[in-house]
Design brief:
- α1 packs antiparallel against α7, α4 packs antiparallel against α7 and α6 runs antiparallel to α7.
- The chain is built from seven helices and no strands.
- It has about 120 residues and is mostly helical.
């Protein structure tokens, strides 16, 4: 991974070094895994769960997205989904809409960075 690509990813809140470390230092494996996010539907499941008023669906999808984000070093995405999961588990639904807006903003930022760097 060249310095420019790494910079773009880091500017989007992606801990590239941490993600590669979790892949046992295998950069090729890391790049392969971050490309798989394009096929993941959990973000869309969060949104459709919100639209349907299904907090169970939002919880399942946000929890899965949290795990994926954590493993790939998508730090801010991880933090936001962690907060969504916590709020749902504690039945604090009043702030979920704000967190979903943050999730959308960060998800789009991450996906844009992946697209700009050819990781799709």
């Amino acid at each position: 991974m060249d310095a420019k690509e790494k910079e773009i990813l880091m500017d989007a809140g992606i801990d590239v070094d941490g993600g590669i470390e979790r892949c046992m230092g295998n950069e090729a494996l890391y790049k392969k895994l971050i490309k798989r996010i394009w096929q993941d539907t959990n973000y869309q499941e969060v949104l459709s769960g919100m639209e349907a008023g299904s907090m169970d669906q939002v919880l399942r999808a946000a929890h899965t997205l949290k795990g994926i984000s954590g493993n790939l070093g998508f730090t801010r995405l991880y933090e936001i989904t962690e907060e969504i999961v916590k709020q749902i588990r504690e039945e604090h639904y009043e702030e979920i809409g704000d967190k979903i807006a943050e999730l959308t903003e960060n998800y789009e930022k991450v996906m844009s960075a992946l697209d700009k760097t050819g990781n799709h």
